[in-house]
């Protein structure tokens, strides 16, 4: 059995200012954790990864970023 751990794609909460601080701090609503365009591209590119193609089951949190990443990373 293989276990693969994948981090979610970029969200608005992950974007860093030029001075190195996060754009958004503190409590974030679920909408702020939606994937950005770059995050969607990152997740989609996982579908072409040979290790990801072998995944039989996916478990993720109920946050938007995790669900969106899992759906986009699913091959085919």
Write the layout of secondary structure elements.
Layout: H1 37-46, H2 50-53, H3 64-73
Helix pairs in contact: 1-3
Structural account:
16% of the residues are buried. The chain has 3 helices and no strands. It has 76 residues and is an all-alpha fold. It is 32% helix and 0% strand. The chain has helices at 37-46, 50-53, 64-73. The protein is elongated and about 40 Å long. The mean pLDDT is 82. The chain starts with 36 loop residues before the first helix and ends with a helix.
Q: Oligomer, anyone?
A: single chain
Major β-sheet, in short?
none
Number of helices: 3
The structural class is mainly alpha
Average pLDDT rating: 82
CA-based gyration radius: 14 Å
Order of helices and strands: HHH
Distance between the termini: 22 Å
Sheet-strand content, in percent, reads: under 5%
Helical content stands at 25-40%
* Contiguous runs where pLDDT drops below 50 for at least 5 residues: none
Shape by Cα distribution: elongated
Number of distinct beta strands: 0
Write a short abstract of this structure.
This protein is an all-alpha fold.
Features:
0% strand; mainly alpha; elongated; 76 residues
